[in-house]
Design brief:
Elements (H helix, E strand, L loop, with lengths): L1 H9 L18 H6 L7 E4 L2 E4 L1 H11 L14 H23 L11 H23 L12 H10 L15 H11 L2 H6 L1 H9 L1
Antiparallel strand pairs: 1-2
Length: 201
């Protein structure tokens, strides 16, 4: 959904392709051909395809510089922008995987609860790193809104406190940015159902 928000912000025409995300069902062959992991998102254009959300984010922003969603390669903020995207994908998302998919990290089923507990602790650690990084900044990159803020918002929607995961409320700087991102028309459109669920809950 974060990639959809990016596409809405960019204003590029796109088409959603129905796929399977149910972990208990086999992935269609055509989905595995594009991403052998069977995960989403996958971006296709022409005869090309790519996966990994951070890579897609970087690609789309570089391909559509007029949308002003990322610093250019020669701008000082480019390093922080790339660092944050990679940290989101390699550390924060990995912590989510520890909790949601402990079988990927444990040798035996009996060890899976330990992996989940570590995942929940790791979520708190990684979100604290991001919260401290933001500090008093208006956005992740200071006074400039970017795709990194969209990515942050997307990841906060994955937090599930009934599972023991932290609430975004524990990280005031993260929460402040997530709340601001949620007001954007692109997010209101793409996350309409999720936003309605939160209001009803």
């Amino acid at each position: 959904m974060g990639v959809r928000v990016l596409l809405e912000e960019i204003g590029a025409p796109y088409e959603l392709i129905q796929t399977t995300i149910d972990m208990d069902k086999p992935r269609p062959a055509e989905q595995l051909a594009l991403n052998p992991n069977g995960w989403v998102p996958v971006l296709t254009w022409g005869d090309n395809a790519m996966y990994e959300c951070a890579a897609i984010t970087t690609f789309l922003c570089d391909r559509h510089p007029k949308a002003n969603l990322a610093p250019g390669v020669n701008e000082a903020a480019r390093g922080l922008y790339l660092q944050t995207l990679v940290y989101f994908s390699s550390s924060v998302q990995n912590a989510f995987q520890l909790d949601y998919y402990p079988d990927r990290f444990a040798d035996m089923p009996a060890d899976e609860p330990g992996a989940q507990r570590r995942g929940i602790r790791r979520l708190r650690e990684t979100w604290k790193v991001i919260d401290d990084q933001i500090g008093d900044n208006e956005w992740i990159l200071g006074d400039r809104f970017s795709a990194a803020d969209i990515y942050l918002f997307m990841l906060t929607t994955w937090l599930n406190t009934p599972r023991g995961q932290p609430s975004a409320d524990e990280f005031p700087n993260v929460k402040r940015i997530a709340d601001a991102v949620m007001q954007r028309p692109s997010v209101q459109l793409v996350y309409e159902g999720w936003i309605a669920e939160q209001a009803g809950g």
